[in-house]
Amino acid sequence: MLGRTRAVALVGLVGHLVDVESHLAPSLPAFTLVGLPDASLAEARDRVRAAVTSSGLAWPTRRITVNLSPATLPKTGSSFDLAVAVATLAGAGLAEPSSVAGWVHLGELGLDGRLRPVRGVLPSVAAAVAAGHPRIVVPRGNAAEARLVPGADVLAADSLGEVAAHHGADVEVPDVEPVRDVVTAVPVRSAPDLADVLGQDEARYGLEVAAAGGHHLLMVGPPGAGKTMLAARLPGLLPDLDEADAVEVTAVHSVAGTFDPGGGLVRRPPFEDPHHTATPASIVGGGSGLPRPGAASRAHRGVLFLDEAPEFTSAVLQTLRQPLEHGELVLHRAAGTARYPARFQLVLAANPCPCGHATGKGLACTCRPEQRRRYFGKLSGPLLDRVDLQLEVPPARAADAAGEGTATVAHRVVAARAAQRDRWRSTGWRTNAEVPGRQLHARLGADRALVGDLERAVDRGTLSLRGADRVLRVAWTVADLAGRAAPRREDVAHALVLRTRGHGA
C-alpha cells in the first residue's frame, strides 16, 4: 500500500522537486518520517494525524513510513504537511493514487484540517512548472502569488478535506474560514520628490550619476545637510524592473515573507534602510537551518541605505564586501548552503566625526583626533575602495533654492541606461557599474591621454587599481548623461573628483 505525490524543497531561491512516498504496512501503528527533515518538518507527523481526523477521515491503523526523496537533500519548514497527508491518504486507499500522484502539493496544516499559507510559494511553483509539473495545490492565501507564475495550473484550497475530495475521497467538505496572510508585507512607500532637497547641486548630480550607472555612493556631511533626504530619493530615479528582475526580486521577498501578492510582481526597485543596531545575520541573512534572506538580498536590484554608517559594527560592514564584488551572497550553514542574489546599490551616509561638526575649518568640533580616526576608521579601506562615488555634502543654507524634480532627473537616467544597455547588449552587462575595467579600457582605444589623470592618481597612492577602474566606470556614466558615445578627458577628471571627495584630483 503505497501513495505518492510531490512537494518542493527550497534551498535559497532554488526549488528542488521532492517525491513524497507513504508506505503503509500491516504492523503495530506507528508514523515515521525520513529523508533529512528538520525539526519543524518532523513535527508534521502530529499535525497531519490531527488534521486527517479533524477532516472526518479515518486515520490508518498501520505502520506508516513517509520518505522524502532525494533523501540527501535537507528539507525544512512546514510546507510539506499537505503532501505528506495526501500521500498517506492515497496509500490507505482513501484517495485516488493516480490523482494524488499527478499534483504537486504545498501547504501547512492546522490541527483542525485548515490549510495555512507558507513562504516561498513563487519560487516553489516556478520550480515545479520548470520541472514539467504545472498542476499545483496551494492554500488559498497563497493562490494569488502562485498564479503569478506563467503556465501554472493552480488549485486553491481552504482545507485538507477539500483537497481529499478533489482526489476522490468520500468525505464531506467542511465549510471553514480560510486562513490568510501569515506574512507581514512591507508597506509600499511612495517615493519622495527630489525637488524637496534645497541646494546641494553637487550631491544631487552625484545622486543622478549613481542612478544612471548603478554606482555605489558615500555621502559625508554634518547633521541636517540632507544626506538622508537624498538617499531616500534615489529609488525614485531608478527605472522600473524588467520582467526577469521583477520575478527574481519577488521570489526573494516571497522567501523572506515580505511580499504582498495583491499588488502583483514587485515592479519598483526596493529600498532597505536597516537601523545601525542591525546584526550581520539581519543584513546578509541567517536563521536556524538553512538561512533566510537578509536586508542585502531584499534590496536586490534596488537600494541598501546605511544611515550613520560608522555606527554599524565592523562585522556588518565587512559582510557587504562579497555582495558588492559578486552581486550575490553565499551563506554556509551546517544544514546546507544557500545562495541569494544581492546586486544592490549601496548608499552610505556618515558624519565627518562623532559630533558631526568637523566641516570647513572645524572650529565647532569637540572631538579629539583619535576619536575622529576611530569613528571614520569603521569604514575600512577595502570597503570604501568598492564605493564608486564619495561626496562631501556641505551644510545647507537658508538661501538655497529647490532644484529639478524626480521626474525630470529620472528621464535623463532612463536615457543613460538605454545607452548602456545598447553598448553592452552582447555581453550581458546592463550598467556601467557591472563592467570589468579591462572592457572599459578596451572601449577607450589607444589614446593614453584619457587615463593620464588616473595613472598619476594611482602613482601618488590616491587611487588603487580597483579604484581607477571604478573611476573609469563613473566617467562612462558621466558621458552617457551628457549624450556622448565615449568619455572625454574632462569626464574622467569629473569622475575622479566624484570619487575622491575633491581631494587628490
From TrEMBL:
Signal sequence bounds: none
Domain AAA+ ATPase: 213-397
CDD domains (UniProt xref): AAA
Similarity field: Belongs to the Mg-chelatase subunits D/I family. ComM subfamily.
Classification via NCBIfam families: YifB family Mg chelatase-like AAA ATPase (TIGR00368)
UniProt name for this protein: AAA+ ATPase domain-containing protein
